[in-house]
Fold:
Amino acid sequence: MSAMAELWHILKKDVREFRWLLVAYAMLVVIATVSATTGGALANGYLQLGAVMLLVVGPIAAAMVVQADSPVRADAFWASHPFRRGVMLAAKLTLAIGFILLLPLIGQLLALVAFDVPARDVGGLLGVSAIIYGLVLLIAMFLAALTSDLRSFVLSVVGLLIAMLVMGLLVSEAKWSWGTPASHGVVVALALAGVLFLFVLLYIRRDVRAARPIGTGLLALMLLGGVSGSDSAPAAPEAGDVATTQPGTVGIAVELRDTALITDESRVYVQVSLTGDAGSQRYRLDHPQARFFLKDGTAVDIPLPELGASLLSTGPMVLPEAPVIQQDDNDFLGPTARTQRFVRSDDRRALMRGIDSVRLTTRLTAYASDIFATLPMRAGADFLRDGQAVRIEDTAPGYREGLLSLHVVSVGRTSDIFNWVTGGGVDAVLVNRKRGEGVALSRTGSSTSPGLLVLPGTGVHQGTIRYIAAHTRNGDLHSDDAEWLNGAQLVLVKWKPTGSYTVSATNTPSPPDGRPRDRIVSPFASSAPSQPLKAHR
Amino acid sequence: MDAVIEASHLTYRYGRMVALNDLSVAVPEGALYALLGPNGSGKTTLLQIVMGLRRPSAGTLSLFGVDRDSLSRRQRAEIGYIAEGQRLPRWMRLEELESYLAPLYPTWDATLASDLRQRFDLDSRQRIGAMSRGGQMKAALLCALAPRPKLLVMDEPFTGMDVLVKDELVHGLLETAGQEGWSVLLCSHDIGELELLADWVGFLDHGRITLSESVESLRARFKRVEARMPDDVAARSLRAPADWMSVERAGSRVSFITAHGDVERDERLRALLPQAEAVEVREASLRELFIALATSASHRAPAEVAA
Structure:
């Protein structure tokens, strides 16, 4: 009997032995896939159940397949017969990969296609899902190999989950940390290699008596690296990316204001402004940090994380396929963003020594607008593009309870539509083309929950976002609001990163006129905005 | 005679507990070797090491003259194994189990399998899990015998079998093993059956082989001696030397087992029993020997016992 024939021989036995379990698993995959791909799930806001069940049943099925021919039990039937040990392992892996992993991957593919996730992302997302679920299955099979029966397997999984929870708490509470993200990755990779090696060794050599303590140690290392490494910052576009849309010129001005406030409160007021006219490009300041040069020749570094909390602009939003919408100053569509921050130092005496100048160092990321959804203003209208499924749940002719609410399912690498705070998110605008008027919308609240399609590895968020008209927050209703709304369209604008640059700006010593003395210019060209549209009042 | 199994200085540890302690043993080719020993003496561990189900902590083991780890698949297919507590695929029907195993063994004999099925009164359509304990052992035995193995390793093979089947099996095994020239290594608590089967015996105690020789030699060497002394006082005052085993006193009678086979010519024995009115000597049964060795081994050095 050749090795291949033997593999099929064992595989047929396993399929026959676990046929009902595998059928049930396949049905779960179908349920999860149908839930993820049909509108029913979107309507109900309910994606998870089938997928969560898969995450439970899949590893158990893999564990049972392994334990049916245990690599370590001395009473295992197969071990006293002339099976090739490597072939036995290969048969188990074939069933795990070829069925338990592959089947939901196909479901995941169908779900991604159903959500119109860009084709360029599908391969990567499937790869991530395959790796994550493959790792889950591998760990389950490894634990099953080390344990003698299903009960002890389940107990060890529970122990592993508790360990993961404790480690996660330790890391998130910042009570304990170690190494760099790169070292976390190395640890995970090494632990994974160790797990694989030991798993193979268990089959080839059997009775590796140190396998349990070594295996436990490897899993602990993997958890340690995994939990520590999961807290990494989101990737920003690389420096040198070229801004391709609506080029503009923008400067960053740093102004040290009200230094007289440096008294016993140890605070200083810094204003960071974008200057120039960059069209409708918007900007985010990542990891901004102020260095205060003190009069005694020393310096104090203070991070300014709040600066990166929202997108900044230098001018009104320009929609390439819609009129310009002009709004009040200081609105989110306002002409100039000034971001003023009190800066505090833990070392009170440092700032008390007097500030000579301040230098802002940050990474500037530019974003260009892209209309990715236009919907008629009525309940039930929906839209699907690039993994973002949007449906208007409700519209209110009055503004008090919110102008409209959207139910959104976001699928893909990033949950763009919910990601409005940290940039790269979505803004909403109501446009009545017949009236030539536009209204900017402000988000009043949102509720989101993470979810699953069929497998983990793809960012899935679902929830509701409520909007009100930006300029009517304190205003009264107009008699023609209902009519105006009927003729309006909801335009959702997505901000896409186009480039990222490290910049630095230094002010001159405490200018008496409050004007900035130092500015830098980022390498963006400018284009003239199109005709502005008056705001709907 | 060549050894089909040759273990040298085998040691196996379960954590801190030593199950096999520097054990050396050779099982002659064609022999039906019975491994005796009290519970926890290491019999099952030794058989599992022979089968490659456990790896020794130290020492070497060869089968058919080849290191255990270097056996070819064909050589592995020449070894049959059944054990009490072996996890059979309970979900399979017997016919499925046969179909599953047959392709692995170039020497699988379907006719023998069919004969055994009939002899054991097994239903090929019945699931293994639905069989009685004895039925499952029979099924396992069928699967171990059908490939006509050159070496058969059996750990408590008679468990759960009724007397008739056991008897039939014992005779069947004797007949088949003899005809085919199989080597058999088995351990069983059923010493009565072993007495019928075995032509070699090994005694295992605390992880060491304290005795390993042919039954013929054992019978010649180990004798049951029963001496009638003049009175109870003489019987009680008789000082038993260290190499007397299972010394029993009942009234004026003293009985014991000695390894000095030629008792009549044993001058030392005569010197010890000068007052004996009568001395009866007969071959020690395997059961008597087992009990004697089991009860005395903990007090004596192995070499002393085997000497």
Remarks:
- Residues 223-283 of chain B form one domain.
